[in-house]
Amino acid sequence: MTDVDFTSFQLHDDIMAGIQAMGYKTPTPIQQQAIPVILENKDLIACAQTGTGKTAAFLLPLLNKISHANHDHTSTLILVPTRELAKQIDDQVEGFAYFVSATSIAIYGGNKGESWDQQKKALTSGADIIIATPGRLIAHMNMGYVKLDKLDYLVLDEADKMLDMGFMDDIVRIVRELPQKRQTLMFSATMPPKIRDLARKLLQEPSEISLAISKPAAGIDQRSYLVYDNQKLPLLQQLIQELEVISMVIFTSRKSAVNDIVKALHKMGHSAEGIMSDRTQEEREATMQGFRNRKFKILVATDILSRGIDVDNISHIINFDVPQDAEDYVHRIGRTARAATTGTAITFISDKEQYRIARIEKLIEKELPKLPLPEGFGPGPEYNAAAKKPMENRNKKRRNSDTKKNATGKTNSEQNHSRARAPKEKKPVDNQRPIAPAKPRIKPNTDTAPSSE
Ligand code: AMP
């Protein structure tokens, strides 16, 4: 596999120029496997997590086909769970589209009339590629001007997340409007039975690619500490002092904890900002831009960001708490060591969170090294591999989306942080960066207006 390079796919020259401009030298494993299948017009179900290069794995062959087909209609629909992902994919299309003749539009929920109108305009004029969150697309479809009857390619990206977020019915409703004869590609970080069911419904004799399932990239040095809640901030302080941090993302499941952590970091003398979905879109974009441009070193974020942050050289990830879903652990730590670099991911495990570790270790198929607390910290909790969910958590309603999770399933300590009820946080934040060096945009009608689903 290592011998494969991009020339072996026999892509058009313009696509090759785009690949070169993006600085991609060697196709990643998912690209090596998926690109030939997609070029052969086969349906595909691929198990690949974010950070593996999966976006280019479907964009490159699709752009190769689209940009030379002279379609007069929208040929490609990419359904995604979150607006971050929609924007991120749109950014990648833009990166390639500097060389390739294709237009795209990101359609995701919004609160501003102007973004709706821009989306409507772009949908009416027929962009080559629509990248959409299901709910928002349906809202436009209900207005009658979305024409998908000639669609050639359907991509479901992060299908597991879409189902987790309750988009199943929307997906089925959208697919009903599409031609039967089309190529369908489904990407999912995990392959639970519900994903297989969906695949059976939507795909025809698909090729199947399964990369090491949901294992974090090999370049990530994973560690953890067993701590009591009141030891977390002091430990964070000590680690930041000891580690050579280029840039760090600190994840917490609790939106309400973001500000507390940022304030504590400021007190420690570190430059840090928090990002949450109840900030305005402009504020969130400014925060992400500041982080990318290294205006501050530490970003504190909720899980909602775990799949979307695509920033180079994040040297350290801190899981300030243990994510509720094992998959979220993989996504969080996947923000570092992207595209085969290296990074360190450190998880703080409180006594009340220990029960989540077994599932994570099962998923990543390895034991998380549990390091002794630094000198002077006193003892942390003992590790109990068979720990059960604390009683006070058991009856709490479990919900699925990242956002919803923030307001539910809290441990006692979490509740301490979130006395003020989580404000209504519906939507994810934006966190994309253009992955190629800044290039002029080709698309006249694309919607970059901030919005939320
Ligand atoms: P993804 O898994 O699609 O989110 O991609 C993760 C990151 O890897 C993105 O920043 C991509 O631009 C980058 N990437 C994708 N393919 C390659 C490649 N072949 N070589 C280097 N970087 C890549």
Notes on the protein architecture:
- The chain has 453 residues and is an alpha/beta fold.
- The chain has two domains: 6-210, P-loop containing nucleotide triphosphate hydrolases (Rossmann fold, 3-Layer(aba) Sandwich); 220-391, Rossmann fold, CATH 3.40.50.300.
- Helix content is 37%, strand content 15%.
- The chain has 17 helices and 14 strands.
- It is globular, with a radius of gyration of 22 Å.
- The chain starts with 12 loop residues before the first helix and ends in a 36-residue tail after the last helix.
- It binds adenosine monophosphate.
- The site of adenosine monophosphate has 16 residues, from helix 3.
Annotate the secondary structure layout:
Elements (H helix, E strand, L loop, with lengths): L12 H10 L6 H11 L4 E4 L6 H13 L9 E4 L3 H15 L6 E4 L5 H13 L3 E4 L1 H8 L11 E4 L2 H6 L3 H9 L6 E6 L4 H10 L4 E4 L9 E8 L1 H14 L5 E5 L2 H14 L3 E4 L5 H12 L5 E5 L13 E4 L6 H8 L9 E8 L6 H8 L5 E2 L19 H4 L7 H6 L4 H6 L36
Parallel strand pairs: 1-6, 1-7, 2-4, 2-5, 3-4, 5-6, 8-13, 8-14, 9-11, 9-12, 10-11, 12-13
Helix pairs in contact: 2-3, 3-4, 6-8, 13-14
The structure holds adenosine monophosphate.
Adenosine monophosphate binds next to helix 3.
